[in-house]
Amino acid sequence: MRRVTGLLFPLLLFLAACSKNDGVETVRIAFIGPLTGGVAANGLGGRNSADLAVRLRNADPDTKYRYRLEVLDDECKPNIGVQVATKAAASRHVVAAVAHYCSAVAMGTVDVYHRFGLPAVVWGAVLPDITYGNDYKEVHRVNGTMINQNEVAARFMTESGYRRWAVIHDTTDYGRGHNRYFRENLERYGGTILGSFGVTADQQDFNAELTKIRELKPEVLYFGGLTPIGVRIRSQMERLGIDAVFQGTSGIVSDAYIQGLGALAEGTVAFREGAPAERLPGGNSFLRAYRQQGYSDPPEAYGPFAFAAANLIIDAVEKVGPNRKRVTRELNATRDYPSAVGTISFDEHGQNMVPIITKFVVQDGKWTIWEDSDYATGKRKLPR
Amino acid sequence: MNARPATIDRVIALAALAAFAVFAGLFLELEEQWEIAALAVFAVVAFYLTGRSGLAARIETVTYAHPKLSPAMVMLAVLLVALALHESHFALLMLATVMLYVVACLGLTVQFGYAGIVNFAGAAVFGVGGYTTAVLATHTGTPHLLVLVLGGLMAALIGSILILPILRTRGHYAALITIAFALLFKTFLEVNDALGGPQGLKVPGLELLGWTFNTRIELSDDREISFFLSYVVIALLLAGFAWLVVKRLERSWLGLSMDAVRLDETAASVFGIDVARWKIFAFTLGNFLAGLAGGVYAMMLGYIAPTSFTFSDSLILVSIVLLGGSGNPLGVIPAALLVVVLPEKLQVIQEYRFLLFAVLVILILRFRPDGLLPRRPRQYFPGDGK
Amino acid sequence: MDIGVLSQFLLNGLVLGVVYAMVAVGFTLFFGVLDVIKFSHGDVLMAGAFVALASYAGLQFMGIDSPLLLVLLITLAAIASMGVLGALLARFLILPLKSAPPLNTLLATLMFGLALREAVRLFYPAGSNPKPFPRLLPTDAYTLGNFTLRLDSVIIIVVGLAAIVALHLVISRTRLGLAIRAVAQDAETAKVMGIDFRWVVLLTFAIGSALAALAGVANGLYYNEINFGMGLLLGVIGFSAAVVGGLGSILGAIIGGFLFAGLQTIGAVWFTVPAYKDVFAFAVVIMIMTWKPTGLLAERSSERV
């Protein structure tokens, strides 16, 4: 015992002494997201956006503290997520976390945040249970849940005159959640689902499923899942000559979707919670600053949310100091906070009550807000 | 004739253990880039030098001469490291994780190192233990100790589906069986709603003899003992148990029979060894150990989902066994430490760490094909070293 | 289900089967000469597809816009580069590990596959996103009731099968093939007979990897999309197909490839949740292995030592 501790503690003390700094206190904020593996593009976009928030703030001479982003990779796996969340939460220096793109990971880590009292703001995971499945004061979320998204999607599409759907969803919690909430909402608005097909998230070939779908002759193909297989399904639809409208979820509202499909992306509709960044003064300056920093990856759909989450935390720290309990209280009291994704107000579960769901359609290789598009004015028409 | 190693060798062995313990403790606790790099350089140099100067062989002789004392000393060392780190939750979590991986990999060692069955579904078996624990602990009032044992039994039971195909095939053909199982297991969990589907399941914390593992122990306002310490202790006990079983097995005629089966099935059967029996025994025992570890792991993390038990996770387990030196239970310990903790320590290089990790493993395999600590030839008379 | 839909399923299965068979043939070749499993095979396929995509961009930049010429050149680039990569892999990773336990080779190549995958993701511009693959084959479609046949599907099936048949002819009719077969049968004797063992191994790995590259390009042309993770499952499926067919046999690899594609298609049609199709296919594979422990076309010698 003496031998171990005798060596260990002096060394640790020495190291601790080394890391002392110059007067201004450094506050650490953790960023957790998937940086490796299949959905890494979204994780990297989120990381860059959070990093941008920290950089901009550090460049501002009026800030009370210096900020440092501790970036952790959850690999989109719950066990790794719990590991890194514990790492962040157990570290005395980390004040709060901007956390998680993958819902299954967030479901696993909310207990960790609660147990250690680390305030966390979820920036991308959309499963309702993350905020509504518990009473943890530490857990907040700036992005909306999939319930809101599908309510608007079902109403809008049925009002546009569509009645017959086929559904493909991936078998992750994300895809299945969308399948469930879309079905519930669609039934309310009088649409019918002719058939739904669960597929694995790493599947390449969808010809068999699509051949079955072609038999059903749907007007719309609803896809609940993320960009990579969204691209595959849309391009294989064309091979089989299925000319239904391709309707996606927030998971495909990404630049990668359009890059992956080229001209084929035209006319894809999708819905995402939050006001479009281009439409908001905050969002616009975010996009401009992001471009100026020259990150090699685009912010992707949830980048603005990560940026907003980081700013929310930084503002709370500026106001009440780097203390977890006070920051948690401050975050819970967030009302009408202006951000890159519109105003943020948390309800009693720490869920941002996002009033806006934005409808998107791909027009000329860009995700265009529906109301601004040629499709809304009638100049172009979706397949019928 | 002279079986007792020199006193100086024993002192060296103890010093080496202490040094390894300090190293492991620092490796778990330190975070800064340069510190990790310094530790890595130190480890490589120390490893090379001890191997080169013959120290490693002398140390190993000592451990062989004291088959009961040396594991006890290792356990004591781990306990001391854990106590030294009693406040750092994360280091303790990693330590417990390493230990549970050691248990699972000891199971794979029995299967692969002894009986020659490659198991590429290790993580699936681990997952069966975890899921069984989750379901039983959530929905029934079964005492948790029993739950864990049932988790192990369930893993052995599910694994027994594969016994017939494995008995009939060998080599790469047998490898395909477990690979196929690993892939279908994960997809099955994802698609099947009964077990929580892709969202996974919450798992209650462990309770043993009225002791709730997830409560924190406060020493004073400011200081506390991490609740992960309790998990380290139980993981350590489990590892000790697995070690005992595996070592007893290796030294007994059971181990001898399995060695014979691995090295040459035809010859073994000619000598009247029931090949199928030992294969079944090794496979089932290995799965039991992995399932047991999976149960504790699930309870420690409090949450499990299919993505934690994929084919790549199985590969991680196999890598640990191979890197350690297949068939040598001792090698599993440094290999597990390396494979579990290193990617975590590489967090600073963020998205590049898998690339680096893959390259490192290739280098080890290329330049140390028998693993870090290769298995020694069987000693028929313990202590008869040279 | 009417005949049109049935033929559609059949066509899908055929294309899948050809791609799987091309991958499986590689596994079977490597196992034949060296008794090793090169698990990075799927990722070599992926890398081949990315080389094709990169050279497409380069050629376009140079002003070449004839689809036929483009498709030939990018295929050539992919095949050549992956052939070299395969030989290098054999030279620096697989041959040095020859005396180590076979599982080490398996793990080392798996890790190489991981490294290759991560390298493409990190260093190819925006490599973590799916990439559109150009449509270079004629897409004339013939529709008959519920059946749509596109010319590109036919071309892919024909070219894929032709490549496999050509490989078979090389192995059974040429001097090189003779050398490969000699090494496969007994490396020591082959060496004694004056066959350059190392050269044969390198060449075999080059050929197998080139075939994987062709499969990668075919995959890209067929789905019009490639991504860094595409090789992972394809590799495992190719391995399964090769083993089910019987390692060491080209015909076995072809049968295995089509069998696996058939199982997946049946699974997708059969189950209401198509995601079960892989569970189904792999379960059947386990059953087949129990029934025929050395694959459908068993190796002639009962045990290799």
Structure overview:
The complex is a heterotrimer of chains A (384), B (386) and C (305). With 384 residues, chain A is an alpha/beta fold. In chain A, helix 7 links the parallel strand 6 (164-170) and strand 7 (192-199). In chain A, 60% of the residues are buried. Chain A has 14 helices and twelve strands. Chain A is globular and about 70 Å long. In chain B, 70% of the residues lie in helices and 3% in strands. By secondary structure, chain B is mainly alpha-helical. Chain B is built from 16 helices and six strands. Chain B is globular, with a radius of gyration of 21 Å. With 305 residues, chain C is mainly alpha-helical. In chain C, strands 1-4 form a two-stranded antiparallel ribbon. In chain C, helix 1 crosses helix 9 (230-245), helix 2 (41-61) crosses helix 8 (197-223) and helix 5 (151-173) packs across helix 6 (175-185). The longest helix of chain C is centred in the N-terminal third of the chain and has 32 residues, at 3-34. Chain C is globular, with a radius of gyration of 19 Å. Residues 301-305 of chain C have low confidence and may be disordered. Chains in contact: A-B, A-C, B-C. Chains A and B meet through helix 1, helix 2, strand 2, helix 3 and helix 4 of A and helix 1, helix 4, helix 5, helix 9 and strand 6 of B.
Strand order of the largest sheet of chain A: 7-6-8-9-10-11-12
Gross geometry of chain A: globular
- The backbone outline of chain B, from C-alpha atoms, is globular
What proportion of the residues of chain A form beta strands (DSSP E)? 15-25%
Describe the largest sheet of chain B.
2 strands, antiparallel
Percent of residues in helices of chain B: 55-70%
**Element pattern of chain A in H and E:** HEHEHEHEHEHEHEHEHEHEHHHEEH
Tell me the number of helical segments of chain B per DSSP (H or I, 4 or more residues long). 16
The proportion of residues forming helix of chain A, as a percent range, comes to 40-55%
Set out the fold topology:
The complex is a heterotrimer of chains A (384), B (386) and C (305).
Chain A: H1 2-18, E1 26-33, H2 40-59, E2 66-73, H3 78-90, E3 94-99, H4 103-116, E4 120-122, H5 129-132, E5 139-141, H6 146-159, E6 164-170, H7 173-189, E7 192-199, H8 207-216, E8 220-224, H9 227-239, E9 245-248, H10 255-261, E10 269-273, H11 281-293, H12 303-320, H13 324-332, E11 357-363, E12 366-369, H14 374-377
Parallel strand pairs in A: 1-2, 1-3, 3-4, 4-5, 6-7, 6-8, 8-9, 9-10
Antiparallel strand pairs in A: 10-11, 11-12
Chain B: H1 7-29, H2 33-52, H3 55-65, H4 69-84, H5 89-114, H6 122-139, H7 144-159, H8 163-168, H9 172-191, E1 201-202, E2 207-208, E3 211-212, E4 217-218, E5 224-225, H10 228-251, H11 253-263, H12 265-270, H13 275-301, E6 303-304, H14 311-324, H15 329-345, H16 353-367
Antiparallel strand pairs in B: 1-6, 2-3, 4-5
Chain C: H1 3-34, H2 41-61, H3 67-94, H4 102-123, E1 131-132, E2 141-144, E3 147-150, H5 151-173, H6 175-185, H7 187-192, H8 197-223, E4 225-226, H9 230-245, H10 250-270, H11 276-291
Antiparallel strand pairs in C: 1-4, 2-3
Helix pairs in contact in C: 1-5, 1-6, 1-8, 1-9, 1-10, 2-3, 2-4, 2-8, 2-9, 3-8, 5-6, 5-8, 6-8, 9-10, 10-11
